[in-house]
Amino acid sequence: MQGEGHKDTPTHGLASVAEGTSPSRQPPGSRREERGPSDQPPPRADLRRLAQRAAAAGIQVIRFCGRASNRCEDESGVFPRIRSDRPADEAESGVGHGFRRLLCRSWLAVRLGLLGCGLSVVAAAAAAGRDVSGSRPNILLFLADDLGIGDIGCYGNDTIRTPHIDRLAREGVQLTQHVSAASLCTPSRAAFLTGRYPIRSGMVSSHGNRVVQWTGARGGLPTNETTFAKILQEQGYATGLIGKWHLGVNCESSSDHCHHPLSHGFDHYYGMPFTLAGDCAQWALSEKRVRLQRQLNHYALAMALVALALAAGKGAGLLPVSWALALGAAVAALLCFALSYFLGPLIVLADCFLMRNHGITEQPMHFGTSAALFLREASSFVDRNKQRPFLLFVSFLHAHIPLVTTEAFLGSSVHGLYGDNVQEMDWMVGQILDTLETRGLANNTLVYFASDHGGSLEAQLGGHQYGGWNGVYKGGKGMAGWEGGIRVPGIFRWPGVLPAGRVVSEPTSLMDVFPTVVRLGGGEVPRDRVIDGQDLLPLLLGTAPHSEHEFLVHYCEAFVHAARWHQRDRGAVWKVHYVTPIFHPKGAGACYGRLACPCSGEGVAHHHPPLLFDLSRDPSEAHALTPDTEPAFHEVLERVARAVEDHRRTLSPVALQLDGSGNRWSAWLQPCCGGPFPLCWCDREGGGDRPTPPDRDL
């Protein structure tokens, strides 16, 4: 499963897309439907689709008269029946039969005309601002991991094949200025679920530990935070999460599950409570194993030298110490060496396992079956809840290193293992969409696709690129100010409600999903806290000309690195950078040689005056403006500075969940199947063929 990454192909075949322009694509409805002769009924599938759309629009449709029956029915078998008063023997007669056929065709034409008019009215109502809040559709959310915006066909890539994601864009609304609230997993996902900047919930750090570091750590999404899943659950939705969590598990014991998805509004959870990391496959690209091994080896060497010095001093009579002290130092050195040697397998046991609800099903997890298991869970969840409104959040492990990819997709792309992994994720999207289609749920389901942040530029090894490509945008994962770290794909589809093929070039945020789905589900956005997201429905429907976001602030840990101002009257999107990372080596476009760029300290540059860019003219942030090149330079800086200060005044002091002891491993918090850690092992999946237990039941 560990093939080579793409080499010397930094652009992934990306065609640059100018800001505010529509990526090339087949126009919706470009395939003309073949029409049969006028005396032939429409095909069965066409009638069924019309009936489903009519039902979704609240239009009543009746069946049409049959030939030899005392029941009026159409040949499609999809419309409700009405009873005929004409006797069966008359229906069998030639005159009666001919009359009935003529009547059938007449009624068929009338009803199809009425149906077409009804659907036109629905479309017109949507275009005119029909209020669809509280309409309680099913909600399907796809969130990729570390996916670059330049890795998808509908955003300009013509060499990585993503037909199913591209189809969503053709059939829905594509956002070209969609940004995440953070450039790393944990804070971005916290903001996505709560609709709030992660600093408001404390899901940030102040000294480098920017994500949840261990499954056995105490930090995580606080219990007093409200997720959109919790509100929809209260509104009667079935709520499920499949895949990555990475927002903590326990607080005080290995089984209190205070940060677990089931404590944040999800009825059903299946997936990794941590994240799929390079350490799960013991890759050379390591998040913490290599660093911890280096530290342990230093400790071991130091203790060995201490033991040697104590023994020599004792033997020579120069040190009045006991032999026990020298022996203790030697034992400590041996323990550090042993822990360093076994650290890799211990990390796999501690972090790389699967849970169903509160129980562990695989520890360690089998990477080769995870895609099939996730698809099985998604299908099972839909089948169990298709008679009621549901929220299903599919949080992919793709495309985070170690890029676990099933054999069927290895070698399928021209971009090595990363491209293979993205194409497998696209196939998984298609499989889940097919599940909606076959259950007749597609037209009543709002589908959303995005990534949690930009692709990782530093994920390189031996000249191969294992991270994503961020298109024309500067920077990548971990860089909170530069667009490449936070500009992400954003696609919404809701057939018959959202206009197909619409492209929106207004600033939007992952935080906007919160108020959007809450209002669609009939809930109310909380009024006891600041919600930073905005309802996207008016923008998606085309009834609002502009985004509600005038300003967006971009944090790196607890520090403001940048802010943007959407000056609507001028049509400009200004970006102000107060702090930027110092790229390494000099002249590079990333912080190569480390996991991600830092947020503070010697690795960043503070700008006085701040850097100013006009994203509407310079989306690549290649040309910083000056007072000589931009007459409004000082005006823009002053206006953005006031907005940032106004934003700061809305913040309340909270405990930072990712600082200090809250982000260190604790044995008593470590989930373990089968015994005390490290005696953990279980495999309750049976190779992926076991039937799925009901919700909240292992």
Automatic annotation (TrEMBL):
Tree of life domain: Eukaryota
Q: Which GO terms describe its molecular function?
A: arylsulfatase activity; metal ion binding
- Keywords of the record: Calcium, Hydrolase, Membrane, Metal-binding, Transmembrane, Transmembrane helix
Q: Name one Pfam family in it.
A: Sulfatase_C
Matching InterPro entries: Alkaline_phosphatase_core_sf (IPR017850), Sulfatase (IPR050738), Sulfatase_CS (IPR024607), Sulfatase_N (IPR000917)
The Sulfatase N-terminal domain covers: 137-522
Do the record's keywords include Metal-binding?
A: yes
Q: Which family does it belong to?
A: Belongs to the sulfatase family.
Q: What is this protein called?
A: Arylsulfatase L
Source organism (scientific name): Phyllostomus discolor
